[in-house]
Amino acid sequence: MSPATTALSAGDLAARLTDPLRLARADATETEGWDSGGPLRDAAVLVPLVLHPEPTVLLTLRTTKLSSHAGQVAFPGGRIESGESPEQAALRESWEEVGLGPALPQVLGRLPDHLTGTGFRITPVLALLRPPLQLIPEPGEVELIFEYPLSRLLDPALPQQQKARFRGAERAFWVWPHERHYVWGATAAILRNLALVLR
């Protein structure tokens, strides 16, 4: 076991994720090429840390049938409906997408909003989850539920920054290594902020 992760108990994680000085380490993200001038659409995702002896972060793989972000790695989440707080939206969407009961996550706070090139303002909602969990992917939205080792977030050599052309301009973005899935974009940027807070 990695000393970096075995030292982080549920209490340690909760303390770090609610510490204002640590939260100030997170980057206020910029738009990834959002230049239409139109209004941003508000969304929220749940960023759940699963309290195994070696903690993990819960992620999903979106189905290839979706009209946007098909086949991408994501946190459970979606649009904020009228009258909802980001926390309410993240919990509702997590229930709809992976069957996570709204009473199960211990909500701790938020990371800075992330603005995407597709016109969303995403609020990441931090939470702790205690196993065992019985999760069921909603087949119209989620192909797979999987967990990413927290030890990788604590590795100072990660994530990797890559570049690609997007809408006629070269953009830099973060990528976290995984054996099967390409973890990039908004999900990778939010994971990087989580890492900056926890390290």
From TrEMBL:
Cofactor(s) the record lists: Mn(2+); Mg(2+)
A Pfam family matched in the record: NUDIX
Residue span(s) of domain Nudix hydrolase: 39-170
Gene3D superfamilies with a match to the protein in the record: Nucleoside Triphosphate Pyrophosphohydrolase
Highest taxon of the lineage: Bacteria
Keywords, alphabetical: Hydrolase, Magnesium, Manganese, Metal-binding
NCBIfam families per record: PRK10707.1
Family to which the UniProt record says this protein belongs: Belongs to the Nudix hydrolase family.
Name the UniProt record assigns to this protein: CoA pyrophosphatase
Gene source species: Roseomonas haemaphysalidis
Taxonomic lineage from the root: Bacteria, Pseudomonadati, Pseudomonadota, Alphaproteobacteria, Acetobacterales
